Amino acid sequence: MSEYATAATTFNDGKVLLAALFEMGYTEVEDHIGNPQPLVGYQGDYRTLDGVGHTTNPAKAMKADIIIRRKQVGSSSNDIGFTRNADGTYSAIISDFDSTRHNAGWLKSVKQEYSKQFVFANAKKAGYKLVVNKQVERNGKKVTQYKYAIA
Questions:
Q1: What distance in Å separates the CA atoms of residue 63 and residue 93, rounded to the nearest whole number?
Q2: Predicted confidence (pLDDT) per residue in 28-40, tens digit
Q3: pTM beyond cutoff 0.85
């Protein structure tokens, strides 16, 4: 059994966090903001509120506002969630098993993408347009390169 642990973050905009996770390749992230849903363990059961035990009762399960379901995390993985705290920030909920890949380094990558998406979202609100140019070298010598500009 793999226990869940929480990690504090500075993320405070759920929609921006959803966009960041999508840009990182998690194409089926679930938005349950304001209506948290149970996290599912690798055996298909729920984790108890303390993150340690198992339960079949969703009312007694650990819940999250934003969920990356286990099928996107790995074949033997658990769901990863983000839950909104009283102060408006989100905490990541990650199992011990999944923390080998979804660890502090992964959260740093999420933070970098979140920061980029936050700037884009606020620029859009201010009336600016985002211009993205993708350049691909066909001879295989160059890596895909993105250039972002706010116009």
A1: 9
A2: 899 999 999 999 9
A3: no
